[in-house]
Amino acid sequence: MKKIHLYALSLLFLAGYAQGQSNDHAPAKLPDLKSGEAVATFAGGCFWALEEGMNQLKGVREVVSGYAGGTVKNPTYEQVGTDRTGHAESVQVYYDPKVVSYPQLLEAFFAGHDPTTLNRQGPDAGRDYRSVAFYRTPEEKAAIMAAIKETNESGHYSGKVVTEVTPLTVFYPAEMYHQNYFALHPNQPYIQSVSLPKVQKLRKAMVGHLKNSTSLTMVD
Description:
220 residues; two-stranded antiparallel ribbon; 7 helices
């Protein structure tokens, strides 16, 4: 996602408009929170991979891609891509805490991206791709800090975690065409080269907590 893909996305938009599908560029609607559910919000680079990875966990009902951490109201993908809104590409996870705990979501989050690279994930650079763990309660903040300490002490990464720990103010859902993008476009070059390895990494770390144990594979 990435500037080299904006032109292709623009072409897709024009084609969709011609076919009466322009609503794909309308923002998605947030689902209602069901009884007993909880919600968590994370940013870890391109939201296509993080959405797919989190959605594969047992106990997760739905994941919505969107924008958080900035000051501009109702931002568009194009605005966030300028890196001037303060927002990061983020995901909001609706889950059953009786099946998957918040610390387990944090484990998946820290496994599904590189939390040691400042304002960058792989080929994607800018604060809109920064690593952020948003919290809603003091308990969530404490869990995030504990997860960062554990990640640093594990030696899994050569560098130290630079993930921001930030209270959530508002989450804006991204456009409809971004939702479930990984699942709907598995052969897209960016998905294959950048997103898929991140999802595979998350799955490897969360064995035993997956809805489906079938491995994802690269397309030749």
